[in-house]
Amino acid sequence: MRKIPAELCVRCKGNKHLCGLSSCPIVERFRTIVNITLKVSAKESIDGSTPPSVVVGESSYPRVSLLFNVPPGVSGEDAREYENPKDWWGKRSIYEILNLRSSMISNVLKTKVDDVWKLYEREISLTTVSENPVLSMSKVNGEIKPSLKFDGYLMPRGPSINSADIKVIENPKLSRLMEKMIFDDVKASEGVIELYKNNHDLYKIINALSMGLLGRKKSRKLVPTRWAITAVDSVVGKDLLSKVREYDSINEVEVYFQQYLGNIFHVILYPSSYRVAWIEIWHPLSLWSNELVISELSENYWGVYDFMDGGYMAARLAVLESLENRKRSAGVIIVREITKDYFAPLGNWHIRETVRRAMQNKIATLDSLSKGIEFVESRLSKGVNLKSLKSVNGILTQRAIDSFLDYQGKH
Amino acid sequence: MKFKVIDAKALSTIFDVLSEFMDTVTIIVTKEGIKMGGIDPSRVAFIDIFLPSKYFEEFELTSDEYLGIKLSDVSAVLSRTTKEDSLIVETNEGKINFTLQGEFERSFSLPLINPEEQKSPTLNLQFPFKARILTSAFSDVMSIMEDMGEAVTFTSEGGKLYISVEGDMGTSKVELSTESGNLVDSQGSDASSTYSIYYITKISKMKSSSDILEVSFGSQIPIKLHYELPQEGYGDFYVAPRVE
């Protein structure tokens, strides 16, 4: 995260906004931790329903930490809201999400990635793909580590505590297809696509892959959640792209827009075969940056991109979904602006969800790509020249071979 | 229809390069030989490949045939081809069969797909500059340039050919001339044009099928990479320019 000089915070004490943020992250964090520790102090077990929420860590792989997240004392439907990205969208503010997330406790189980079946027998893995929140009880040992965890891909996590045992009290409720995929011996990628095609929540599919519930039975392993998120985005994206590439191109330049949590998205679709430029504009005082920083990534017709970026994969999925629905192909430019209001990373789910909403919100139709780019430029904060960017310039300058061809016998 | 080539590697490379540009291709077989190609789906490159009947060790045909094939499948079955192999291709009741003969014989049978409508466009361009170069030298230059940036500029000046890339780190430039021995010959006037390096690099893999390449270009027009194949066969690759 952006380093705020400590001197500033000492003088400020969270009141004067010297760091330029609209509220003090330290205070915010402190507040939620105080809430949580009060509720669970002097207890040997943590009871509550998991929304469900789980994270498989990646450090010290293959001996990983499994974090089973539970809001203490909250049970039944009320627990759902603690991990509910689809319904959060547009309603929950960054503070509310931070509050929800940090009032959950991560029960930490150390496990080996091969222990898929042990977790399955204890119903821990089934709980993570349940349609409903599931009541559980965790026998804890040690102290609560009162710190919040932030990450560019994962949702924020609350304080954690080592767990000796997690008991699942209620029955997890699984869809019939999810049960079938768990019992079937098919490749993980096929399982992911099957679930996705049958309208399963992407976040449940991520949990299923992460907990080793999909794939060839003898090669099932736990997959660190961060990897699973991008794996699901790219497996589904690859499947969609193979179809989208074949469709006819759109005829006009279309501009889409949406914003949420201090992230502003513009998507330009233009007549062309499929290719994508992804542009991120980090405003001064946004999360990871002190100055205006622009990063870009290009993907070509064949689906080859410059480098792997989890945020890009999430946005790309949303655009491909929309093209597949319309049965159209297009060239794509996605511009993401990150403003100072996005002061804590919340994971990449909001990128996926905001771009999904953007694709339902067309704000302009223009007759040339150049005009489309100028239009978006006029809506961005000053000082950003999109046309000068390598990725955009590459698109604007590339001629099509058709204009040099003669078709003999064409009447 | 049946044909045989002694150098299976040369033919499999042609299919391989084609497969990098398109998913399917229609092979047109006439008594003159074999033609295949088309416009790549990203509409930047145009490919025109001709293998005359003399190119083949054996060439049997009763009437003209249009054979639709899925290139990724062909490329997969031919991926283990070695220098020692010869290759027989024949059609039989909706199938195309590939037989590799070398240390041991391997046969593959693939379904034919519906051939696409053939428009056979042509490019009638006057290229101000032409140079011939060894395909291996050209491939070496492109693999050096590949990582340096995404746009490659071809410039001719006083009969010399300059290939340059402007990248994030800086500019890289290679000079080729007949004097230094790395051009076989060159002719024409000064010109300069920029192309996406991605396409040019993929084409340069043709070195396994051909020894000599003729590079033709002008300002703000496509580049033509003409790979000379035995018995007056050729692989022509046109790539549209980037124009500021």
TrEMBL record, chain A:
It holds the Pfam family Nre_N. Residues 18-289 form the Archaeal Nre N-terminal domain. InterPro entries: Nre (IPR033167), Nre_C (IPR006979), Nre_N (IPR006978). Keywords: DNA damage, DNA repair. The keyword DNA repair applies. The keyword DNA damage applies. GO terms for biological process: DNA repair. Transmembrane segments: none annotated. Residues 306-404 form the Archaeal Nre C-terminal domain. It comes from the Archaea. Belongs to the Nre family. Involved in DNA damage repair. This is DNA repair protein. It comes from Candidatus Acidianus copahuensis.
TrEMBL record, chain B:
It comes from the Archaea. Gene3D superfamilies: 3.70.10.10. One of its GO terms (molecular function) is DNA binding. InterPro entries: DNA_clamp_sf, Pr_cel_nuc_antig, Pr_cel_nuc_antig_C, Pr_cel_nuc_antig_CS, Pr_cel_nuc_antig_N. Keywords: DNA replication, DNA-binding. GO terms for biological process: leading strand elongation; regulation of DNA replication. Residues 4-100 form the Proliferating cell nuclear antigen PCNA N-terminal domain. Residues 133-241 form the Proliferating cell nuclear antigen PCNA C-terminal domain. Sliding clamp subunit. Responsible for tethering the catalytic subunit of DNA polymerase to DNA during high-speed replication. Sliding clamp subunit that acts as a moving platform for DNA processing. Responsible for tethering the catalytic subunit of DNA polymerase and other proteins to DNA during high-speed replication. Homotrimer. The subunits circularize to form a toroid; DNA passes through its center. Replication factor C (RFC) is required to load the toroid on the DNA. PANTHER family: PROLIFERATING CELL NUCLEAR ANTIGEN. This is DNA polymerase sliding clamp. It comes from Candidatus Acidianus copahuensis. The lineage of its organism: Archaea, Thermoproteota, Thermoprotei, Sulfolobales, Sulfolobaceae.
